[in-house]
Amino acid sequence: MASRRTIVVLGGALAGPAAAARARETDERARILLLERAGSVSYAVAGLACRLSGEVASAADLDSRKAAYFRDLYDVEVRTGVEVTRIDPRRRTVTAGGRAIPFDALIFAGGVGTVFPAGLAEGPGVHAFRNLADLHAVEAGLRTARRPAVVGGGPFGIEAADALARRGASAVLVERAPRLLPSWARAAAAAAERGLRAAGVEVLTGAGVAGVERRKGHVESLLLDDGRRVPCDLVIVTAGVAPRTALLAAAGARLLPSGAVRVDDRCRTSLPGVFACGTCIAPLHAVSGRPAWLPQAAIADRSAQVAGSAAAGGGERLGTVLGTVLLRAGAATVARTGVLPVEAHGALVTRVHGPSRDPFLPGAEPIHLVIRHDPRSGRLLAADAWGVAGVDKRIDVLATAMAGGLSVEDLARLDLGYSPPFATARDPVNVAGAVAAAVRAGLASSLSPAEVNARSGSLALYDLRTPAERREARIAGSRPVTLAALRADPGSLGVPRGRIPVFVSRHGKRGYLAVRIARARGFPRAAFLAGGIASWRAEGLPVEGRKP
Amino acid sequence: MASRRTIVVLGGALAGPAAAARARETDERARILLLERAGSVSYAVAGLACRLSGEVASAADLDSRKAAYFRDLYDVEVRTGVEVTRIDPRRRTVTAGGRAIPFDALIFAGGVGTVFPAGLAEGPGVHAFRNLADLHAVEAGLRTARRPAVVGGGPFGIEAADALARRGASAVLVERAPRLLPSWARAAAAAAERGLRAAGVEVLTGAGVAGVERRKGHVESLLLDDGRRVPCDLVIVTAGVAPRTALLAAAGARLLPSGAVRVDDRCRTSLPGVFACGTCIAPLHAVSGRPAWLPQAAIADRSAQVAGSAAAGGGERLGTVLGTVLLRAGAATVARTGVLPVEAHGALVTRVHGPSRDPFLPGAEPIHLVIRHDPRSGRLLAADAWGVAGVDKRIDVLATAMAGGLSVEDLARLDLGYSPPFATARDPVNVAGAVAAAVRAGLASSLSPAEVNARSGSLALYDLRTPAERREARIAGSRPVTLAALRADPGSLGVPRGRIPVFVSRHGKRGYLAVRIARARGFPRAAFLAGGIASWRAEGLPVEGRKP
């Protein structure tokens, strides 16, 4: 028993307990000690919004694994309400309440903390939303609040606003940037915004918060930095999070500029004997190959297993991450995976729209996909998906395809499960791959909605849709045309000299076909609007026509 | 115009029209001619069951793309009601109605035909179920039939029986083999059977059909080959299909023993200028590397695109297939991908059970997974999945993982979309990978339910579940034990000399942990029941205890 190692885990919530459990599975003899500042050991951060929405009957359901569970199942000593003030990597001790606790291996799972924008501070009626204490405070406030505000239009803010809408509250979501999810693809972000608005959330973008105004101690409004006021009586702040890594920094660990801990493939930090896991670390991104700080539960859980294994002498490896995110925004589901659009330099972008299941069945809903691939290798780099049904499946397939290094040609051929209630024989994922492969093979050129919008002076737009569809909504300056007319008399297009004909269809399919026809008839530079009018509208670009 | 090529496509339904469309997208100048025996050009075979169930309002919804669609959109000449009697590859002609039609390229999409078991023939009250004419005949019969029978317990038979149950009919499903889906994993097949029974279908296995008995011209019963009679008044035969490739065979094309056409990566047959696609071909299997005849709509559609492209001079490639199948059986969804169990020689098998979404939300349903991997490389070879919700997503992720050549370690790390309404932070797919990786790394040994059942004389079973769970259902001869007792006094197990202790838990997780504890305490050969009692019961193995 002399050689029994002591593993100390810092941090509860998701990662710390998962790391402790995996350490036990790896080394049955070790002494394992879990220290957590708060009163609860293990709780689901991602579940907070589900409790706020009323979908989870009781907050206790989020807090189901008590200290006794970890003691009985994993023989882990759990101490809650313990604040560690120092890590001494040389002596291999942590200090808590003035006492030094020795370790052979330390697993740091500090998580992230909410960053309050300048002018906002935690206080009466102004709350973070990261743990059970925050949840209790917000729920108490909602007993009287009529108009809750959420500050921050990233994933956490959207989840909170969505939850408030589900609860029936009349919420307002405030985001500093010109749009929600500012680092995401524009169309996916727009889908989230439409979803929230349709669910009754007021969405204010381009609205930086300067402060909060109170009356008799009660929140009365948010003050924006342009002087506007947003009436509200409760504020949930989700504007940003930062890794809680001050203890590691003080001990001399190497951090990234974001404050996230750089770890190797075994979750080792730069300090000997000190491992890190959870939302405070930056694993390598599968596509970019660079450290990526992605504070997400699934990555936290995975890294916890690696850190727990490694700290106990096991061999698990962290591998890479993709940054897959899946969100509800009202009736919409919005998701992404892979590098961010700004990181996908030179990527070719494909836009498709297809049904979630066989359209001959009721309940088929459109799935919208934007995929980015490397034009040289054809490899998938990123994907966005949104819709009402089946979005979670498509983003997982695309993430898995990316993990396997699949090309768009592989995607076109992917042998997915087909049964009419669940999919079409040619899934939207297959279609996205096929369209991307066709463009890559040089069969047709496409222009993105933004390109068509920006270059309209050098283009001639031809609309292949029906007169009824054109009456409903059309791009200014576009002219009607049919495939039959195009085949019979391409000269009838009357393309002005120097302009490139661009074919507009509902989803891009007929546009593609029109390009094939036009190319064979003397228009080698013809292109189609990628994703058709559906993508144009998804990007929020203007149309003429009847009001919807 | 002298060099304009003529592409003739033989066969409607799904593959022929898809091939014609892709040929047009590839060569805008070609003359494209589609010949189909039946009266409809394009219809969804997979949709027949959805119409039978009543979910599709009208059979016309399955037949939405008429000849006019292909003419207007794709400039394809469609001729229905045309029976081709001969292919002459030397002269490059097909013969129909005594006239020779010349081609430069021929795309053969003959599909499959129903094979009636000896003693059964198509006739009044006895119908195949492959096309719209069959559907109309069955629907006419169901106006008076009280007791429809489905002959054949493969995927098509299960879909038909499921559809009859959804329609409210009191159906009986008859299968010659000792179980449904005889080539599938036993537990997945059992799930399909349970699903159908719960939906009110009577399932008779080990029941070979010898004939049909009629009274006054009306079907009265099926006669089984053991002399039993199954009362019924309508018979749907789905017992088998065979490629309709007689025309190709007569022309000298190379076929497989199954009658399926061997094609290369461009869907070329052994006859010059003759391509084949659809359910009659045998592409290469991604895992086995051998030709696999898998008559499925998604593969048919994919090969049609390749044949259409290739026949028109394009460069698409077929790649490999996985044989992904997805089925409803009452409330259950049952799915598989990869090689069949008999083809997965030497594979390690992992069984896990996890929730479809976060269990703190209502509506979380168990997902059951069986994955097979190569013990040397760790690569995934096959997967079965069943459950009530989210099965389609998991099988698609597993299929995509297989297409990317992922190992079980990769699967454990897969960065899937996590949001409580759609998944858990550690998805069952991740868990399956992690358990397989742990066994592969030698951290613990597992025994399958069948192995535990067969070797019970050399094992000592210890049950880690609660007394209440044991009262409900337990394996005969198993003894209760707790992890705490195992840790405190492993001698108290009292393992009989020469026996291997095997730990039984609910889903396998605690069993795994018990093996880790036991190994550290002098039981190096300890093992756990893979998938726990849940897998034991999923395989239909006997338990003692209270009746459910």
What would you say this structure looks like, in words?
2 copies of one chain form a homodimer. Chain A is of the alpha/beta class and 548 residues long. Chain A is globular. The longest helix of chain A is centred in the middle third of the chain and has 15 residues, at 297-311. Chain A has a 5-stranded parallel beta sheet. A 5-stranded parallel beta sheet of chain A has the order 9-16-10-11-12, with helices on one face. In chain A, strands 23-24-27-26-25 form a 5-stranded antiparallel beta sheet, with helices on both faces. Chain A is built from 16 helices and 32 strands. Chain A has 4 domains: 6-112 and 242-312, FAD/NAD(P)-binding domain, CATH 3.50.50; 126-239, FAD/NAD(P)-binding domain (3-Layer(bba) Sandwich); 325-440, FAD/NAD(P)-binding domain, CATH 3.50.50; 445-538, Rhodanese-like domain (Oxidized Rhodanese, domain 1, 3-Layer(aba) Sandwich). In chain A, helix 1 runs parallel beside helix 8. The interface between A and B is large, with 97 and 98 residues.
Key words describing this protein structure:
homodimer; 548 residues; alpha/beta; FAD/NAD(P)-binding domain; 4 domains; globular
| % residues in beta strands of chain A | 25-35%
Arithmetic mean pLDDT of chain A: 94
Helical percent range of chain A? 25-40%
Helix vs. strand class of chain A: alpha/beta
What's the CATH architecture name of the largest domain in chain A?
Answer: 3-Layer(bba) Sandwich
Question: What's the total helix number of chain A?
Answer: 16
Seen as an oligomer or otherwise, the chain set is homodimer
Count of spatially separate domains of chain A: 4
